[in-house]
Amino acid sequence: MQENRRLILYPLAALIYAAAMVVVAKTAPAHGDAAWIMAEPRYLDANGVHCCGPSDCHREHATKLRESPEGIWLAVGAGDEVLMPRDRIGRGLYTSIDGDWWVCRRGGEVKCIFKPSTGI
Question: What is the DSSP code (8-state) at residue 108?
């Protein structure tokens, strides 16, 4: 009798585990192309908070950004720009690993900018 119980319980436990893994996989936030930012704990903003949450970082078109001696300017609206100062290297200003511009925003505030490796 106990042998029959094991034969029923093991497959049932495996089925429950598999179903739980499917639920976890479907509810885990996907991060798409910006997963490399989210996966690196050293990418922090000026306040020491991680740059990237599930929907914070996006690839940005190069025409929205320009470099100056002060840092990186990001166009955020009709003629408005936000400056990511050059002294924020390693605290909000990073080199992109894929050659694209990336901007991380949270609560409407620019937290981090990742720029192509033309030098920061």
Answer: T
Residues in the chain: 120
Which tokens go with 100? 């694209």
For tokens 């991680």, what's the residue?
50
User: Hey, what are 17's tokens?
Assistant: 């585990």
Q: Count Cα neighbours of 86 within 13 Å in the Cβ-side half-sphere.
A: 8
Four-residue CA torsion sign, 48, 52, 55, 61: positive
Asked if 101 and 63 touch (Cβ cutoff 8 Å), the reply is: no
Instruction: State pTM to two decimals.
Output: 0.70
Q: What is the pLDDT of residues 40-71, one digit of tens each?
A: 999 999 999 999 887 899 999 999 999 999 99
